[in-house]
Amino acid sequence: MTDDKDVLRDVWFGRIPTCFTLYQDEITEREAEPYYLLLPRVSYLTLVTDKVKKHFQKVMRQEDISEIWFEYEGTPLKWHYPIGLLFDLLASSSALPWNITVHFKSFPEKDLLHCPSKDAVEAHFMSCVKEADALKHKSQVINEMQKKDHKQLWMGLQNDRFDQFWAINRKLMEYPAEENGFRYIPFRIYQTTTERPFIQKLFRPVAADGQLHTLGDLLREVCPSALAPEDGEKKNQVMIHGIEPMLETPLQWLSEHLSYPDNFLHISIIPQPTD
Q: How many domains does one find in the chain?
């Protein structure tokens, strides 16, 4: 793995200023003040919103509280998507802070999975890491790790410990010198304009002739509608972690440096904002 440690740190410590407001129809005993928080992009809502939950429960009666869920401008927020992905996909063109509405009733069964505890987030996270390693190394790296290594990955993410997480995660980012990259790149491409949750296909980082594939190569093959026609204007932004990487960037480098902790590149295709 090429060691661009600063990039890894910048990605890990990315934060989104957020204002949580209780939904107007929730029953409270006194007015609920909004709650402000810097949300870590690489984490999940369920892991970082204990304080939000406590803050609003203080003004509510126990019988009016059921499972907490969050929504932005009418769209329920999926707890199993990383926070940075949710923001890029739904709110990247809006002003900060990100205004999230908190609900304690009328859980949207059709839109969201229930999240009974942090164990559910851990199970989802580890299954993504295992799937990514199946693509990258035929599962050899993750299977050679001990249970405590898996736990260290999870605890590093849960407790926001960069060094603890990367001490293990760097093993998942290595590959044999003679191969120039992973077997396949773990990626998911998301669009708000389609019902399909995401696009995920097998795609190699290195072409048959030894050339490194780029982000542009990936999009041309699996999501050509994201790219501007050669003579036309740009209609979409291609976003990872709130930035638009150059389309000439090698996919292998992106996978090593801009993947989320679950080891996937989560790529958002969003309509170009009109000023």
A: 2
